[in-house]
Each structure stands twice: as structure tokens, then as C-alpha cells.
Amino acid sequence: MLAVSEAAPVGAGATLQERLARALSQLRDADLYRVRRIVDGGHGVQMRVDGRRCVNFCSNDYLGLATDPRVAEAARRVLARDGTGSSASALICGHNREHRALEEALAEFVGRPRALLFSSGWAANLGVLRALLGKDDVLVADELNHASLIDGGRLSGARYVRVAHADVQGFDDALRLALVERPQALRLVVTDSVFSMDGDVAPLLPLSRLCEARGAALMVDDAHGFGVLGASGQGACALHVVQPQVYVATLGKSLGCAGAFVAGSHELIEYLVQRARSWVFSTAPPPALAAAARAALAIVAGAEGAERRARLFANVARFRSGCRQCGIALGASETPIQPLIVGSETATLALSRRLYDAGLWVAAIRPPTVPRGTSRLRVTLTAAHTDAQIDHLVDALREAVSSLQEGTAVAGN
């Protein structure tokens, strides 16, 4: 009788190691292989990346708070008092007073009765969709929604209907059909507010009106709008005077911290406390992190927050103007996310490397993050960038694009 280690393999398929090696080789050959770069020190505008000093133009730290000393000091105070971890899920013994204070501050800021803190935006979206939807329900979603919304919808077991990007008529058609085929179902429309790879904003007001007319609920992931859009930074929904039944936003972008929250009615939050598996079965975030996020929120909500937003959008305008003068074609985005569509994965990597050599960090975004044939440089502006840094980026882009001699739609109109 053979020992376990000597047993013949079952079937003729490749071993795990062979399969992994082959898959990794295919990714490298297709210029889709991804490599982590190491940052030394703070994750601000000025960074040391793999030992090289760079100006960071691929961060979501839109208001420049990730390295703000006041936010760090708030974390330090609570770290000294409450320690490094919450030690358990919120329903066991992990719900600290700092968590409660942050939830109350977030709910007040976005004008909703309650808010619930999650460890990440991914956990929030999966938790909400799996809790609210079942196999008899219908989810109608924008095709360019974030991966967390896609995976959460699929895992929910609901009928998943993808609609062409920002196509209000497509949403209407899907809701009409769902009403006929499943009149008793919960019909939930789900969309990002600001789409993370294109920078455009969803048609929130038409979608809100459509949901009201068709008896559907609306869920908006405002990850890239919260703290950035609106006169007071309350996000895309406030800017467009929309109040979705389910509002999700993150703390790792405009607040420069980590985590996420869901805001809505008292009943919604209580239901999620009972049924959102990614919340119920996750260790609560460290109290110090909640304290840091609350300190950042206070800055965002005040006069300084308004000044930072004004500076941010002045930087966006400067970058777009510079690119236009150089003949570099950008999309229509007016948000801090400014994609430069290249198309070819190889050319996108080459552009990113040239910028890195010039002391500028702009990540190459390739499939599956974006559809095949739309690889791009995703330039993001922050309030902390200077005019000189933005001008340097524009000049470096002009030189890099003109030197590539690629037949892609990078430069032109």
C-alpha cells in the first residue's frame, strides 16, 4: 500500500504549482502582471517609492489628510489610552466609545439617522447586499460598478441585471421588466457615485426619481465623492439633492484613514447589525483609527475643508488646462480622477515607467480593473499638490507621449 506522499495523482490535470506557474507566466507575457512597490514613510504627495523620491499622482488622499499631524495625534492619544486593537467583533466586546462617536458624527454629517462602521468599503458593500437581497429579489446595477458591488450582488443570490454605464433608460427598462416578472421582489438599484477609473459621476437625480416612480430602492457607493463633492463635502448625493435608502462611503480616501460606513434609517442599521455577515463576524477596527477618522471629519466639515476642496478643484482645472494646451486628450471628468486612456497594456506600462523615471508616480491601470483595450494612466489630483508639481507632470506626460510612437488614442483632439 502506498504512503500518502507516494500516492498517484488523481486525474491528469496539472498540479497546483504547475497551474500557478503557468498562470503567472501568461500574465507576464500579456503585460498584466502586477508588482507591489514599497513606500518608505508617510503616504502623502512626496513619497519614497522603492528607494526613489517621487511625487505621488495615483493616491485617493484627495484632501491631503493621510499625513496630517492633527489626525495622527488623535490616533496617538487613543492608542495610548485604549491600545492597538478592539480584540473582537462589535457584538462581542469590540464596540468602543470611539466607534460610537464616529458613527454619530458621520450620521450627522451626511444627514441620516444612523451610521454603521465597517472595516472596509469592500466589507460594507458585501455586507449590505448579502443582507438585503435574496434569490427572489432583483439587483439592477451599472456595468462599471466597483468590484465589491459586483461580488456582493453575485453572492446575494438575487437576479443580477447589468445595465450599460449611466444608461437611465436601461435602468428603467430593467425595473419595468422586474416589476412584471417579480412583482413581490425587492428591486434594488446600485451605483457608484463617482466611478473610480473614469472619474465621471452617475446620473443620481434621474436614478433617484426613477426608483421612486418604479417602487425600487436606491443604494449609492459614494467612496470617491464623500468629503470631495458638495459645498460642505457631504458627497455626490448631497450635491445632487438625492437621499438614497442605502448610502455607503469610505474613510480611506478624503479622510485619509481606513474603514467605511453605511448610513440610512434606524431600521436599516439595526437590520445590518443583525444580518450583515461581514460586520457581524469581523473584528471591529482599532479605536485609534476611529478617533483619527473623526478628527479628519472635523477638518473636512469646517472652513479648512472648504479651502482644501477649493484648492483641489483648482488643481484639477490646472492639470486639465495644461493637458489641453499640450494636445493630450483626457476624458470629460471634472473630478480629481483624470484618466488618460492609452489602450495597449504595453504602452501604458511604458508611460508609467517613463514618469517614474522622471520622479512621478502614476500607476498603470490594466485589465481586469478596466475593460480590455482601455488600459490607462489614472492620474489623481489632491489638495496637497503644488502648481509646480502639476506643471512638471504635464511636461513629463507630453514628452513621454510624444516619444512612444504608438498608434493609440493618447494624444490628439
TrEMBL record:
CDD domains found in the cross-reference section: KBL_like
Entry's Gene Ontology molecular function annotations: 8-amino-7-oxononanoate synthase activity
Catalytic activity: 6-carboxyhexanoyl-[ACP] + L-alanine + H(+) = (8S)-8-amino-7-oxononanoate + holo-[ACP] + CO2
Pathway noted in the entry: Cofactor biosynthesis; biotin biosynthesis
Annotated positions of the N6-(pyridoxal phosphate)lysine modification: K253
Gene3D superfamilies: Aspartate Aminotransferase, domain 1, Type I PLP-dependent aspartate aminotransferase-like (Major domain)
Cofactor(s) needed by this chain: pyridoxal 5'-phosphate
The EC number(s) this enzyme carries: 2.3.1.47
Binding site for substrate: R34, H146, T369
Binding site for pyridoxal 5'-phosphate: S196, H224, T250
Similarity-based family: Belongs to the class-II pyridoxal-phosphate-dependent aminotransferase family. BioF subfamily.
Subunit details: Homodimer.
HAMAP family in alphabetical order: BioF_aminotrans_2
Protein name: 8-amino-7-oxononanoate synthase
Organism: Sinimarinibacterium thermocellulolyticum
